[in-house]
Design a protein that fits this description.
The structure is a homodimer of 548-residue chains.
Chain A lengths: L2 E5 L3 H13 L4 E5 L12 H5 L14 H8 L2 E3 L2 E7 L4 E6 L5 E5 L2 E4 L3 E3 L13 E2 L4 H14 L3 E5 L3 H12 L3 E5 L11 H13 L3 E3 L4 E5 L4 E4 L4 E3 L2 E4 L3 E3 L2 H5 L10 E2 L11 E3 L4 E4 L6 E2 L4 H15 L13 E5 L2 E7 L2 H6 L5 E6 L14 E8 L5 E8 L3 H13 L24 H13 L5 E2 L4 H6 L3 E4 L3 H5 L6 E3 L18 E4 L4 H12 L4 E4 L2 H9 L1
Parallel strand pairs in A: 1-2, 1-7, 2-3, 7-19, 9-16, 10-11, 10-16, 11-12, 18-20, 27-31, 28-29, 28-30, 30-31
Antiparallel strand pairs in A: 4-5, 5-6, 8-17, 13-14, 14-15, 20-21, 22-23, 23-26, 24-25, 25-26
The structure holds flavin-adenine dinucleotide (FAD) (2 copies) and coenzyme A (2 copies).
């Protein structure tokens, strides 16, 4: 009879335990959880605080009792594993309530300790009585209680990652005014800055006071005042600190398990640590990037759940392997959905990867003539010349995560941008168009690969114009009145063939329109009249999402 | 300068023309359309009749003038191509308004004539003044006018395909009572009967008088009475005949182009007909099935659009190929979404294919604790032992077409049911679960392939019980009160280990629960206590969707 100890009883740990029992009715399974609760819905916590999820109970996906009963396992909450004896194959456990410790031996040890909110040593933080982080049920209870009892008017959310933004949304939903402070020049790191711009506009529209490129210097007055690096002072009744998480690696570290550069527990494709009797999964580990095979640590629920099942399989002799993380994610940002998969440009640049191109398109979520269609801003990044998909980002009101999921699937299926033109996706007017946005992204990208059109980007055009380039905006005059790029010449697309002589022969020519489609057609017309031009990728829409 | 004639100016034809012009500014392009309108939104017609799409203009994606201007092409509406001279490479065109004919020569001819609603020679149909078919704008105008002027109270829709169902929905939306008559024992042919059951229940809930397994015998009283084969008589103010479409093949036939068994124009992967100067696309053609390579004709907009672009490429020397049709489709059925891809069981049976298994699951559209989650009824069919995905069907209120699109993409990426456990799909509570329904389908299917569980199906259990098998329902007593399969024994899952002695050793044992999950766990427990059992796939939910 194998004895398996699991450290951590939530996403990764509980999944491992459940699968283990299904595979092996006889294994002795002991699951340790430091806190009171196991198997809770971490991802629902902000929505319970905001009242969107009304029942606290619904956050408890499983209880100690329920899970013990169903899976016949020994679940010990309020039990912290405080050290590992690798050679002796045993751990020391502290009963959190009594402080007493005891040892427990194992055949296999599984670590799923998760990640902790980062709490830097900011001056005044210790003394502050209104600053919270959010990870678990007790955190949630504290914040909820604080909100209900103190009825805060003003709040500050520090950190514009998905938890910060979800908290901002839920506080606004509760009627609390929110200032969101983010150190970087954009929120939501999975997105490139021009995509994040769309979110910035929306956050402001929703009444969030958005402060970018600024960080917290210190707290004053027991937290009632937040002072930023810039000197800006903000009065606040409630502050949420959500600047990221760091792996809970103390156990692993003290047991001398190999750690990655950023402190995550290193594991191989079997989720095995540097010790063959110890596996690790979830937020605490470093696996590999699915696309490049480089080290990757993505603290999200899908990997934790997936890895939990894989570890259980391996322990029971089934040859499952973790193929690496794509980093697919989605967040609700008030009325918008922001989803992404694979790499963004910032990441590629950091890795020194330059053999890629990107496109921005704005197709409707479904057929324009059927009510309720909204444009999706979709960015696709692909390797040249192979056309391999490196990443995708989508933001919009509807149908966004569908397209990102399709693209994530395409990446796992090894499909290139050419191949996605061939994806036969479901179409009826309420759901899509006869050429789905994903197909369209494939077409637009393939046209670049095939040399049918050359493009320039939103952040290049102003300089190109000031250097003497000529920008032809092929939209109709009425559209241009609503906004256009300074210095353009207007020749509506349908007049282009007749007015081709107006185009200077000795200048660099650029074309643009609303989203890029008509610019592309214009560029094709010009090319075949012997005029080389480049189309502004994403058109005025992408340009104005950033500068508008 | 190449001269290209295109027959048919809507989905396939107009797409070909547009891409042709983008590729070749100098080609002479002539597009013939028999009707007044080109490039209209066929798929939106039912919704315009229902008033869901308020503006008639929005159905006209392009106009003759608009498209001629933009693409510098010769578009001739009211112009029917009535014969092809393959050897002379010319066609005869009839001006529909004047009846005059003329010839037009070509280098390349593209046929995209579409498909016509089937109008069988039913007695009384000719005389009927209130029976309509729906294909184009004039049909739409007629129906709309009839509805607005005659304010019908009662209507009959003949044929439960997607157009029939869309018309039923839109007539109900208009306040018209609908009787839907379908010859088969189910609506919506892409679905297997147990899935269609869900639609039947919903249609009835929405007030549709659903008559299955019955067809129209004849019309009486100028159409005011519909008499069915069974003898049933229905009074009707308005009848929509939507029993399917047949390819418009007269031109191709008279030109001796090779036709398929069901009369479609045969084409190869290049969309080339048996004549190398003639291409054909869209509803009129027979291509190949993506999965099996057998002949396939699927009259939907995606193939027409895709093929149009491919033909333009080929004409311009770009080596694009059509890889075959999966038949991915989606329809809104009142509040439900019904989507599918690949093959259903009926089709596999027809093809004599038996080396497959299937599963039915009912995962939530998103995390259950976040408001607005609804179960998706998802059926996945896969080859054994390879695990290759053969088809999928989904029905539910939300998130259905997303999962079908992901599965359609998985098929094109050659991913097996094992591989889809590894799809890293986007997760946040409003959008999915940490194990997406597609992952879950992969898990459930893999467990069968791996021999972890054996299953029986909703349509087998009654007989197995009456033959002496024992069905253990492992739900809680409270759930069972709401409905259960006759003859079951109730042992709640959490008591199973303790009550294992109650299970007869000499009988065939079956287990069930609400959706299959707890039955699976029970089956695993039993197996490891030496008791072989089979789990009822889809649980009581699938069973009751059919028999409930
Ligand atoms: C507010 C919030 C919202 C989120 N939203 C999303 C989302 O929308 N989508 C998404 O994909 N992900 C989301 N996540 C992330 C997701 O919850 C995590 O990726 C996932 O829970 C990680 O699983 P895990 O098992 O690694 O860690 P956890 O689920 O955190 O579980 C680790 C457990 O181990 C316990 N533990 C640690 N050390 C010890 C020890 N030494 N002894 C005993 N017990 C120990 C901890 O107390 C903890 O309960 C969110 C997280 C938070 C906090
Ligand atoms: C009411 C309705 C709803 C639909 N909904 C959906 C949906 O939701 N999803 C989906 O995928 N598909 C849907 N479709 C199907 C989709 O519209 C067709 O698959 C698609 O239009 C086929 O394109 P095509 O070019 O082959 O034919 P068509 O678009 O029908 O175009 C063919 C044109 O050729 C013309 N023509 C024919 N013969 C000649 C000739 N000899 N000379 C000159 N002109 C000729 C015809 O007048 C016709 O206008 C729907 C169809 C209808 C009618
Ligand atoms: C609750 C929890 C313990 C459940 O773990 P689990 O049992 O592995 O997961 P599920 O309840 O989703 O069930 C999945 C299993 O049921 C099977 N299953 C699901 N539906 C089924 C059906 N209709 N028929 C048969 N089997 C089914 C799956 O195959 C899978 O079994 P397998 O792993 O042996 O293949 C774990 O997911 C958890 O703790 N979740 C909360 C924490 C968390 O994930 N937080 C982050 C997100 S908020
Ligand atoms: C209107 C119609 C003529 C348009 O054909 P089309 O020009 O090929 O299609 P679209 O307008 O969608 O544009 C697609 C083209 O624009 C390009 N494009 C789209 N968005 C772009 C962007 N943002 N930037 C650059 N190029 C873009 C695509 O690459 C594609 O060009 P390509 O084929 O040369 O690669 C044709 O689709 C039609 O008749 N539709 C109505 C009929 C119909 O389809 N009915 C059935 C469904 S209701």
């Amino acid at each position: 009879m194998k004895k398996i100890l699991i450290v951590g009883g939530v996403a990764g740990g509980a999944t491992t335990a459940a699968r283990l029992r299904r595979l092996d009715e006889n294994a002795k399974i002991v699951m340790f959880e430091r806190g009171e609760y196991i198997s809770f819905a971490n991802c629902g916590l902000p929505y319970y605080i905001g009242g969107v999820i009304p029942e606290r109970d619904s956050l408890l996906v499983q209880t100690v009792e329920g899970m013990s009963d169903r899976f016949n396992m020994d679940i010990r909450n309020f039990s912290e594993v405080i050290s590992i004896d690798k050679e002796g194959k045993k751990v020391t456990v502290k009963d959190v309530k009594t402080g007493k410790t005891y040892e427990e031996s194992y055949d296999v040890l599984v670590l799923s300790p998760g990640a902790n909110p980062i709490k830097p040593p900011i001056k005044g933080l210790e003394e502050a009585t209104n600053v919270f982080t959010l990870r678990n049920i007790p955190d949630t209870d504290s914040i909820k209680k604080y909100v209900d009892e103190n009825k805060p008017q003003e709040s500050v959310v520090i950190g514009g990652g998905f938890i910060g933004i979800e908290m901002a949304e839920n506080l606004v939903h509760k009627g609390v005014k929110v200032t969101l402070v983010e150190m970087a020049d954009q929120v939501m790191a999975p997105f490139d800055s021009e995509m994040a711009s769309i979110l910035h506009t929306h956050l402001k529209d929703k009444g969030v006071n958005l402060i970018l490129s600024d960080g917290v210097s210190h707290f004053e007055n027991k937290g009632a005042k937040v002072v930023l690096n810039s000197g800006t002072e903000i009065n606040t009744d409630l502050t949420i600190l959500s600047i990221g998480v760091k792996p809970e690696n103390e156990l692993a570290k003290s047991a001398n398990l190999a750690l990655g550069e950023r402190g995550h527990i290193k594991v191989d494709k079997n989720m095995m640590t540097s010790d063959p009797n110890i596996y690790a999964i979830g937020d605490a580990v470093e696996t590999v990037d699915y696309i490049f095979g480089s080290p990757a640590a993505v603290p999200l629920a899908w990997p934790a759940n997936r890895q939990g099942r894989i570890v259980a399989d391996r322990i029971c002799g089934i040859d499952s392997k973790y193929s690496g993380t794509l980093g697919t994610s989605v967040a609700k940002v008030f009325d918008l959905t922001a989803a992404s998969t694979g790499h963004n440009e910032k990441a590629l640049q950091r890795m020194g990867i330059n053999n890629y191109k990107k496109i921005h398109i704005h197709p409707g979520s479904h057929a324009g003539y059927y009510p309720g269609a909204f444009p999706i801003s979709l960015k696709l990044i692909f390797e040249v010349p192979s056309g391999k998909i490196l990443g995708a980002q989508g933001i919009g009101y509807d149908g966004v995560e569908k397209r990102i999921d399709v693209l994530a699937t395409a990446i796992k299926g090894n499909l290139s941008v050419r191949d996605i033109t061939d994806l036969e996706l479901s179409y009826a007017p309420p759901y899509s168009s006869a050429k789905d946005p994903v197909n369209m992204a494939g077409y637009v990208a393939s046209n670049i690969l095939d040399g049918l059109v050359d493009v320039i980007y939103y952040n290049e055009i102003d300089e190109l114009i000031s250097n003497g380039g000529v920008l032809i905006d092929v939209r109709d005059a009425m559209e241009i009145e609503l906004g256009a790029i300074d210095g353009h010449i207007n020749i509506p697309l349908n007049e282009l063939r007749d007015r081709i002589d107006e185009i200077p022969k000795d200048k660099d020519i650029y074309v643009t329109c609303q989203v890029g489609l008509r610019g592309y057609i214009a560029s094709r017309i010009l090319a075949q009249h012997g005029i080389k031009s480049k189309n502004l990728d994403g058109g005025y829409k992408t340009y104005s999402q950033v500068y508008g």
